[in-house]
Amino acid sequence: MEEINEIGLVTVVGIDYSLDTNRYIVTAQIANPSPKSIDAKAPGASSDVWVGSTDGDSIFEALRNLARISSKRVTWSHNTIVILGEDFAKHDITPAIDFFTHSPQLRMKTIVVVSKGAAKNYVASNVGLSTNNGIAFLEMSRYSSLPAVSIKSNMLKLASDFSDDYSQMLVSRIDRKTALLSADDKNNVTESDAVAIEGSAVFKKSKMVGWLTPDETRGLAWILNNAQDTISTVVKTDKSDDSDSKYNRVSIEVKKVKCKIDSKVVEGIPNINIKISGEGNIVEEDGTTNLNITKFKKEIETLLDKKIIDEINRGVNKVQKYYESDVLGFAQIVRVDNNEIWKNSLKNDWQKTFPNLPININVKININTSTLAQKPTTTTKGK
Predict the structure, then answer these.
(1) pTM for the full predicted model
(2) Do 24 and 99 meet the contact criterion of CB atoms below 8 Å apart?
């Protein structure tokens, strides 16, 4: 039996592919169960983690080559995230899915993301508020439904979509954005980059064909039930002086979102029907209204429903018309709802049929309560 201080626990792994050498590059962050045994001044080392990178003709060979530079036996059972580098994703991620679905040490619920640029740069970066990137990525993924600009993707979902002849893979993206502030002893403030989970990578078969922006991904998040406890801000369209409402923006916390999708074949063409429902609470407003609370809620519901429909349309149009990639699994829905028609006529022509599917979207968010008074906080000082 191995002692805990003899084991290196992998918490993050990044996979890149070199177009120059045709070799796979594996970078791993390894948690150190015995921090005092590591020299914090050593390259790639801290009191908590160690980062190493090796290459090989296959992913498995590159992983095994970590033994050349690691002083501990590497184990993968605690890995929380797999980062696929951009070049690797565009080349072909089949080897990664094959390896991770065959290894008994690796969990299928492991988070999977595609990085903007090389994966190794993110494995070694500081992520979130933890020195262990595995923990940081896990917590960031857990709360990603709050802004709803990314989707939840794990190895189990990727393997399922990969093995399906018609469904395509949609994977969350990580990128860098200027978001961190720090001050020196003289109170000079500088900005630096943070690692953010936002946007997504669209695949056709085993290759990435392009990106979705955070806003386009948010449109798909409503359909994929990845938009939970999120905030949506609506902007008043009628700003005339005689309007009963003098606000410009109202923010709503949207909760209990559910999506139902069904299909109906009309004259040989499947029609997709998407119904989004949920509840909302008004949490912020920047003006006043003379409407009673019931009419005010109805006005906000109308604006909110329209905004969500617009977001969904932008995301769906991008994957359907531009990438022609069925990342939402419409083929599976049509197959279940219309099995005989699917087998007889739709199955063999799905790739041509999918980009032209009529898609009907219905959204109904009921605003139940307002956590604010109808008039914003004001002051009478100086009056």
Answers:
(1) 0.87
(2) no
